[in-house]
Amino acid sequence: LTIRASSYADELVKTAKTIASPGRGILAMDESNATCGKRLDSIGLENTEANRQAYRTLLVSAPGLGEYISGAILFEETLYQSTTEGKKMVDVLVEQKIVPGIKVDKGLVPLPGSNNESWCQGLDGLSSRTAAYYQQGARFAKWRTVVSIPNGPSALAVKEAAWGLARYAAISQDSGLVPIVEPEILLDGEHGIDRTFEVAQKVWAEVFFYLAENNVLFEGILLKPSMVTPGAECKDKATPQQVADYTLKLLHRRIPPAVPGIMFLSGGQSEVEATLNLNAMNQSPNPWHVSFSYARALQNTCLKTWGGRPENVKAAQDALLTRAKANSLAQLGKYTG
Ligand code: 13P
């Protein structure tokens, strides 16, 4: 029995390496229209295509962004959209030396037979969508599924999350897109850091088991995990050093060094917390590129500073660049605050 390798194998390895390059990480700007609506609502703006376009134009055209950002994850609307100046968003990113990526999952729905848990949709028709996204200029993909600690997680929910990620990863690689594998372990809950460690250990094991079973090329994926932290409502807080110790211990136990990049999500951490934790993880050499793929921890201040006003665009871009630079330094273990 011979397994056919993706005809894109060399390109996948190259793309993954480019995204995982020193001092750079990913800008997640792939909020679905519903989530983007919540962000716009927080600054008193209506969720119209024009407002989403204005905000995303601001992000992709921040001058010099590519020094700190190697990849940007887009929602489908943005992949096909032009900036307010009429240039393709994708072309602006490429000019900034930022690889365009695309969110390909179709979101979470209740998982029947579980403890009020969810599963992630989007495998039906995925190969024709990934082929079209490649044509449109995307070179990597993202699929986010979640596991809840307070609701279990049940063995069923973990297995479904892992299997879905593995099928998506194989399909993406077959279309030339580097899959970001994102099993998010939600922050919600009162549990301590040891419980998060235990759950993540199980989840990461299953994810890599099914990735291997689906003959996914490990050199051509990126992992986007949650950091190992206490639950958001836990009384005991963790220091960046503790988060780094737990998270690195788990990476060493579970993640093959063939995986080129570990691009953490921020998951509701504050902007500074997310930077400090990343910096702590990069104080000693490790086999991977340990970096960031943040949405909220890159965008929160930027969005607030903009407030929907054209006269604030420059200040908002500066706020984005400040966070991007801080996380770039943290990727190098050189952030000093
Ligand atoms: P946060 O960094 O805001 O958690 O978002 C990252 C992301 O892309 C979640 O899928």
Automatic annotation (TrEMBL):
Its EC number is 4.1.2.13. Keywords: Glycolysis, Lyase, Schiff base. Pathway: Carbohydrate degradation; glycolysis; D-glyceraldehyde 3-phosphate and glycerone phosphate from D-glucose: step 4/4. Signal peptide: none annotated. The keyword Lyase applies. It catalyses: beta-D-fructose 1,6-bisphosphate = D-glyceraldehyde 3-phosphate + dihydroxyacetone phosphate. InterPro entries: Aldolase_I_AS, Aldolase_TIM, FBA_I. Belongs to the class I fructose-bisphosphate aldolase family. This is Fructose-bisphosphate aldolase. It comes from Hibiscus sabdariffa.
